[in-house]
User: Fold these one by one.
Assistant:
Number 1:
Amino acid sequence: MFRIYLGDPNEEEVLSWLMENVSPLGMTTKADFNYYNTYHGDDDLWVMNTSDVSDVGGQWDEISELIFRIKEDAMLCGLRFGGRVV
């Protein structure tokens, strides 16, 4: 798995890019009492977790973790939105 972390991303723009360039949206989940939303691409080729971190007083109000199954998809996303593939 390949991960990218984005601070204060435009969630709609990132989701649109993922659905156009990697795979369509498979499902969205948010468990009760969780502080994050999770979006899954078909066959979990990508997963995006977004979390509101504004109450911890850090640099960002929201952080997104993008998880990719294929390294090339992660690298293209990193080129498009920034971040580092880990």
Note: Helices lie at 11-21, 71-81.
Number 2:
Amino acid sequence: MSDTTAATGPSSGYRIRRPLTTAELSVLRDRIDTAPTVQDLLVTVVVGVFGALLADLGETVTDRSPDDRIDPRQYAIPQTQWQAITAAATNRANAFGDAVTLALELTNLMPAVYDNPAVPVPDLTGRDHRPDQYRLEFSRDVGDEIAACEAHLTALAGQYGTGSATYRMALDSWHRQLASLFSTRLGAATTVHRDGPLSFTVVTEPGLVYGVIFHGQQRRCTSGDCHAVADDTPPGSAEPPAWRAAHTGAALLDHEHIPTYPFGAPQPGTWTSHS
């Protein structure tokens, strides 16, 4: 495989900038497909890529000492190859349920990229390493909370309309979180726990823990000069809603506050995930 823009030395801005050869990619693909653990997989990719590039300089990865580490920014491969290699590695990591962690590590450790449309996208596709069976576990209270989330969406649709941005943003965010629970890229088993109103904690088989949290909008006064906020009063309370300053020192004007959404109406918001 040739590259008319490949260059070596200071004039290129890199020590080595070239595509990997077909033979180098073939060896790397085989080693990725047989890596026994996600840690071995990470080493396989990093050593395989940099080993090939360093060979041009008569060097090896093992020549390096802890005080003379490889700087990935000094090397570059075509973007098409970079993407194919990381895709093959994360596909293999699906077998260990740790594709997300591996992808983040590779982003930090892989060489830089450059654009060269003449370099084709290599076929590094191995077998599908996702588990054949996937188990999703949750308790009865989680099922009840999922139903509460659906009821909240129904209430938003009734209050603001199914075509409103308020409803669409909430619906889309909830569907993204639900879909992620059925992803087999996080191992063969996932457990969901209730974590307060409309929110959950998700624990995956490899040990990744993240929260699915409903972030409700704070009710605010619509006057641009007034920084008042208010919550709903408790059900059955005869007390009027209490407005307060959004934070210490915020302007709380003496006027009739007009809320961003009505009292007693379902709270707008979206669901997001946080590790």
Note: The first strand starts at residue 7 and ends at 9.
Number 3:
Amino acid sequence: MNCLRQTTFAVLAAVVFVSCEESSQKPIEEKFEGILQMDNMCNVLGGDATDFLPRPEVCIDTTVVPPVACPPKNYSLVGACPNPSDGGTEIQFAISEIDSVWIFAYDRPGLPPVDTLFNQGNRRPGVYTVVWQSPNGPGIYRIRMFTASGFRSYGDVQFTN
């Protein structure tokens, strides 16, 4: 009987220890550190290579004249063109199947979004563009894309005035 109590106590202590250890881990905090610099044509110029991932997989149908873009092969939050911007910028995204898409802009980590850039369901596969202007003036804003199927991406946009 004493052995059973010791075993039960040991198991309970282990469960409490593991649950305390798991709850003490904090989620990784996103940092608004840099931007992926892009020109007006959405060419990457440099900067934060971790923004706006994954990059879109490009497909061109050359069986027709003139060649045309195929439906996208993957989900992506393409980026902001231009970035940085002194006025409006284009936020592009691609979806490869019918899905609901939400894109929000944040000016501070952990706070509600300052703007909703896109919120619509049942879109056809394709590449879409949203023209956006800073709602709060100069600064760096985090753009986050979510879909109902579970895709997530983010990147930073800088407005200079």
Note: The first strand starts at residue 36 and ends at 38.
Number 4:
Amino acid sequence: MKEYEPRTHLPDEWAKKASCPVCQSRGLLVSHTSGPADRMGCPACQVSFEIAQGFTHIRLMRLPDQFISHRIDLIGVWINPIELKTIVDKVIHAAQFVESPLQPPAAKQESKIYTKSILSTLPKLTQEEATQRALNLTVLGNPPQAIQVVLQPAGASSDQTAIALEELTRVNQKKTKHQTRCFGSSLVR
């Protein structure tokens, strides 16, 4: 990996006109350090970074409070701002489908409204459909808690979900008894 040299001095005027490479907020701040390089920081997401001499790369010195706060592998690594934007966009895109603190609040509200409007137009599931979906989700390795989270927004009522989960328990108990009998009879032979 190519090593870049950080710019030692960053004018405050640049920061005021710049956009954050993580959250895209305008109006950054410069932290004039006694160390080898000044740092730019975003007051909105709290990210802090150094800028390479050629302006082609940045080096994150502090991760933002949201978006990619879990990506400690990015600290101290020179990265192209476009690559960083791609990483952030993937996290935001993934968070649109799951309730997550990584998603910006405005996008969360839009996503919920959009999801509710689509889900309200779907027909309600029958008990048979709810049970079959629960069985299919179990085969895929989903635990009962995840199945419950999936069934209700898909159109199953609380009662249907409870009955489907009870049926899963019965099926699992039958499988366990069958496996115990098969295993036990193979030992006897």
Note: The chain has two domains: 12-113, 124-188.
